[in-house]
Amino acid sequence: MGETKMVTTDAAKLKLRIKRKAFSLGIHMLGVAPVERWAQDPHQTPDFWPQNIWPWSRNVIVMGMQLFPSMIETTPSVVYSELYNTTNQLLDHTAYRIASFLNEEGYRAHFFPRDCYGDISALVKRPEAAFSHVLAALYAGLGTVGMNHTLLTKKYGSRIRWVSVITDAELPPDKLVKTELCIRCQACVRVCPMQAFTPIEGQIVAKMDKHKCALCHQNLKKEFHYPCGRCIAACPIGEDKKRYRGKAITPEGILHCQDFGAADAGQVKPKALSHTS
Ligand code: SF4
Ligand code: SF4
């Protein structure tokens, strides 16, 4: 697949303008998926496919923003929780602007907000969202799905969140990533407090008990530590972690960040940091 579809120069120019605009608004990765890819490699029932919800849709522009590894390593914590919320807001705002830009250019366009399940209590009852940005990012050639059910990317590993703009604009599609990025190290499996993953022999993507995962999130929300994200933090794929050369945060620093909001807050006193003792 990939760049097999003939595209006009105008389409290529429009994609470039979208990219420039998105990157100037803080987006880190962007790819374009033709809606036909949902049917060519189906991972969900047709009621989830964009072309069956909005028949005019032609392409999905998927945009990602990184989660800083030095913050997500504190998870579950208020620090990661705030990062998660901020990233979500930025993504939605950016997607709104890109859709609006396309409207002004004369195209049909809108965005599918990130989570789309309402509240965590709804996710416990039905652990799925109205739209999978992970699948959209896969179809947009931004990475491959790892054992932990997230999209792995070369640059940011699992530590990137996605939003999607749906449009009828003609745009050059991005090539799919052919080489699997997941190395099956099972770090995500080991770190999960709910044992939600069961690796399957001969397959990359593990069986996942999404209900168990949702229950974990529900408990963390009471402590303002939602979401969990341990399986994302633990994944060794990505150039983002290399920047810290294995020292993104101290163990005492993790305890410090986890203390705030916790049910037993103030009771676990982090040991003095070596450079301050
Ligand atoms: S988010 Fe947490 S509970 Fe859910 S699968 Fe990942 S590690 Fe397990
Ligand atoms: S932690 Fe290891 S097994 Fe899990 S998704 Fe990342 S590379 Fe794959």
Describe this structure in words.
36% of the residues lie in helices and 12% in strands. With 277 residues, the chain is of the alpha+beta class. It has one domain (9-259). The longest helix has 27 residues, at 78-104. Residues 146-148, 182-188, 234-235, 237 line the site of one iron/sulfur cluster (SF4).
Core attributes:
disordered N terminus, alpha+beta, single chain, binds iron/sulfur cluster
Q: Layout of SSEs?
A:
Layout: H1 9-24, E1 29-34, H2 36-40, H3 50-53, E2 59-66, H4 69-72, H5 78-104, E3 109-112, H6 120-125, H7 133-139, E4 144-145, E5 151-152, E6 160-167, H8 187-191, E7 197-198, E8 207-208, H9 210-222, H10 230-233, H11 251-259
Bound molecules: iron/sulfur cluster (SF4) (2 copies).
Short summary:
It is built from 11 helices and 8 strands. The chain has 277 residues and is an alpha+beta fold. Strand 4 (144-145) and strand 5 form a beta hairpin.
How many strand units? 8
Portion of residues in helices?
25-40%
Reading side by side through the largest sheet, how are the strands ordered?
1-2-6-3
The end-to-end span amounts to 58 Å
Helix segment count?
11
Write down the overall geometry: globular
Strand content: 5-15%
Integer-rounded radius of gyration: 20 Å
* Average predicted confidence as pLDDT: 92
| Secondary-structure-derived class | alpha+beta
